[in-house]
Amino acid sequence: MAVYIDKIKSVALPEQAVSIAPTAVLIGQVEIGGNSSVSSNSVIRGDSHSVVIGSNSTVLENCFIKDSAPYGVTVGNHVTIGHRSVLQGCTVQDEAVIGAGVLVMEGASISSGALIFPGSVVARGTVIPPNSMFMGIPGKIVSNLKYEEVSEMKKKWMLFEHRDDSLLDI
Questions:
Q1: What are the phi and psi torsion angles at 156 (to 5°)?
Q2: pTM over 0.85
Q3: Degrees, nearest 5: CA angle 58-40-92
């Protein structure tokens, strides 16, 4: 299967490649920063507004990321988006971790260093403070992350910088 790329603004920074799985689909106004990856069967759509994914970020398998008028999607640097997650018209700041199967709705903002537990729902317009642990349906803040927990998350991000050879470098 081929990657369908339509009206992409930018797929790589000049000195760093972007890894896109052969079964990933990118449509519309999509910009992906250097050393980031989009894994198998993920779909990223920027139909009416742009979708921007920063550098050193990872979109794991089967994710769906889409603008939702009047919102685009902004994903910061060093962000991990877990398997089967859905992001619609939201903002995810640097170094956040989105667990598997998370739903992030329109107008939501996830601040730097936040951890969203797998299966959680981030409702429309929700603002999650920096270094917060968020979980549930509907989700709520359950604690603030300690320095040691943030350091451990950063170690895991470093592992994602070593890409799987099955991904296609563009």
A1: -65, -35
A2: no
A3: 30
d(C-alpha 24, C-alpha 117), whole Å: 24
The CB density around residue 141, as the number of other CB atoms within 10 Å, is: 14
70: left (phi over 0), alpha (psi -120 to 50) or beta: alpha
Q: State residue 146's pLDDT score.
A: 74
Question: Other CB atoms closer than 10 Å to residue 94's CB: what's the count?
Answer: 17
| Distance (Å, whole) CA 37 – CA 35 | 7
Contact 14, 164 (CB under 8 A): no
Residue 37 in this model has a pLDDT that exceeds 70: yes
Cα distances from 19 to residues 24, 107, 167, 170, in angstroms, run 10, 28, 6, 6
What is 5-162's CATH number? Answer: 2.160.10.10
Cα angle at 24 between 72 and 155, to 5 degrees?
Answer: 80
What is the C-alpha separation between 155 and 142, in angstroms, rounded? 23
3-state secondary structure of 152: helix
Would you list the domain boundaries of the chain?
Answer: 5-162
pLDDT at 13: 40
